[in-house]
Design a protein that fits this description.
This protein has 111 residues and is α+β, with helices and mostly antiparallel strands. It has one helix at 2-36; strands at 43-47, 63-75, 78-91, 100-109. Strands 1-2-3-4 form a 4-stranded antiparallel beta sheet. The model has no long low-confidence stretch (mean pLDDT 86).
């Protein structure tokens, strides 16, 4: 049925867009931890809230896994660190229309 296919395609697209923003939020959290708190956490994860008191969160239900690797760099007399943060957001069961996953990889320095 074409209407079911269209509905599933729209749901799939929306869920993957939400997964991207969930992964991006994890990357931003990782950048903050690395550059502001001097904490490059090897691996951590959290669940985004679904909302409270009857309100819904568009990113609710996503699990975000974050990994951070540090590289020490020396350029002339300057020493600094480069942080590579990988954030993976997932929701739903693999093989279902509700499943979505996205990965965001960013680099930041402590300069």
């Amino acid at each position: 049925n074409l209407s079911i296919l269209t509905k599933d395609t729209v749901i799939y697209a929306i869920n993957h867009e939400r997964a991207y923003y969930a992964a991006l939020s994890g990357a931003e959290w990782g950048i903050y931890q690395a550059t502001q708190n001097s904490s490059c956490v090897n691996s951590t994860s959290f669940n985004l809230p679904t909302g409270s008191s009857g309100t819904a969160s568009a990113l609710g239900g996503y699990t975000v896994n974050i990994a951070c690797n540090t590289t020490n760099v020396t350029e002339g007399i300057n020493n600094y660190q480069v942080f590579e943060i990988t954030s993976v957001a997932t929701r739903g069961a693999v093989g279902t229309v509700d499943y979505s996953a996205r990965t965001v990889v960013v680099k930041a320095t402590d300069l």
